[in-house]
Structures are given as structure tokens and as C-alpha cells.
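[#protein-structures] MJ: dropping LysR family transcriptional regulator here for a structure pass
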Amino acid sequence: MGPRNLLEIEAFVAVAETGSVNRAAIRLNLTQPATTRRIQKFESAMGSTPLFDRTVKPAVLTAFGAHVLEHCRRVLAAVAELETCGNSRENISGVLKAGIAFGLEETLLSSPFDMLRRTFSRIKLDVTSDWSKELMEDVQTGSLDCAVGLLMPDQAGSLHLLQTPIGIERILVVTKAHQHNLGNERSYRLSDLSHQPWLLNPAGCGCRAALLSTFDRLELPIQIAAEVFGEDLQLSLLAQSGGLALAPQRQFENSPYREALEVLDVSDFDLCATISLMRHPVPGRFNTALNLMIEELQSAI
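AK: finished. C-alpha cells for LysR family transcriptional regulator:
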């Protein structure tokens, strides 16, 4: 196939994976009309059997389209691997757009990003932070090349992304040390904590969503005293005035307020999240850099 055909394959894969021509155009850095033309040419080259069912909105892949998609992914992966064979580290260049989940920025990523800057002098880093769910969608649409997220159990494996587990992060229930209104129990249940004031992240936080889901499943009320963005600020407020909050274990252990806080053993709420690097399943020009980044992250855990 000539280069023109490869561009049309990329457009088809982008539309199939993002679900719309608009999002595909963003991923490909093209205008919507240019993306549409490539899709039309690809569909014409594939013959009369439809690739998309356009009787529904948004259009979805037909069975034939899904079959073609898997073949196209293999073609693009093979081309990317071939290009990688001829690329030394010195030749890898461009803007690497990376995302990092809130709560992981300071505790995890300084060393891997420093390694990338030292090893790949022609790569410029463009790093942003967001909730893990939004980062996953940005990688899916191509707005980001990769993202390191804190994935809840129901998020692992969702969307068509290559997810490489880096480590497990336990989510702790934290309170002010010796908080008198909790008593001196060795272990608690959520029913013991339902009328205590909670300091939680705003909506969008996966840990908050998991906690509220558990309260709902147990048919228990929850008292959200304040929505406070960021675990560092939450832990500071807890140390001063008490209450309850959730915190990733690494962040709690590195907190300057740790001595003024304590972790509660809650028998019916045991939440562990997976730290994962997410990227597109088809290897791209930054594949070598991302593989090294994964090694650096795993050594840091």
C-alpha cells in the first residue's frame, strides 16, 4: 500500500475508535472535511459492504467494519514497528502530550519525566493533570499520547486502550488522631461513619465515586461536610478540625500532617486502585520513550 492508503487507514481507525469524525479530526490534527474525505475514499476502496451502520446515531461499526478494524490496527502496528527499527533515541522528536491523574503528580512522576528529558533531548514534554476518567477519554481521542491514571476496579479494561499496570495503590480512610467522637474501636463499619463529616474531592474523582457507590449499596446516608479539591488540603483540614477523608496511601505517608492523623480500619470498605500507564494500542513514534517511562515508573513504586 502507498502512503496515501495508510493515511486513509489511520482515518478509519480514528473514526472507529473515537466514535465521531470530529474527535477523529482532533486526533489526526486535520480538519473535519479532510477527515471525511479520507474515510470516504477508504470505504470506496473496501467495496460495497458497509463499514458503518449509519441508520443509528452516532454511527457504529458493522460486523464487517469491526473485522476490517482489527486488520487495520495490525497494519498500523506493523508500520510503526518498522519505523521504530530505523529510529535511534536521538531521532525521536516532537511534542509528547502526557496526562497525570490528580494525586499522583508529586509522589510519582518527577523521576520518569526527568529521565525522558535526559534521554530524549528532542522530545518536548507537554504535561497536564485531570481526573483519571477524563484522561482515559483524552488518550482514546488522541488529545494525549499517554496518561498515568489511578484506575478504580470498574475502570480497568474500559475503552480500547493499552493499559500497563504500574502498581497498586491502597485508598485509606483517614481522620484526625484521637478524634474523640469516634471512640477507640479497632475496626469500624461504614454504618459507624455515616453521620461523621466527610471532606471529599468534587465530582469526577474515582475514589469519591467508589465511596458513594458503597454507601448507596448499603443504603446508608453520608454527610459530605465540604468538597475540597486535593488530598493535601483535605489532610491539612483534617489535622486541624477533624472529620474523615480518603487519601492514596503514598500521599498519606509523605504528608507533612501524617503525625496528626490516623488511618481507620473500615471492614466493609477496602478500596485498591491500579496505577496504570494508558496509551493507544497501535504503537506510535513515542513507543520507545513510553516503554522506558514504564520501566522507570515500575522501579519507582
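MJ: nice. The mean pLDDT is 87.
AK: one more thing. Residues 92-161+277-300 form a domain with the D-Maltodextrin-Binding Protein; domain 2 fold (CATH 3.40.190.10).
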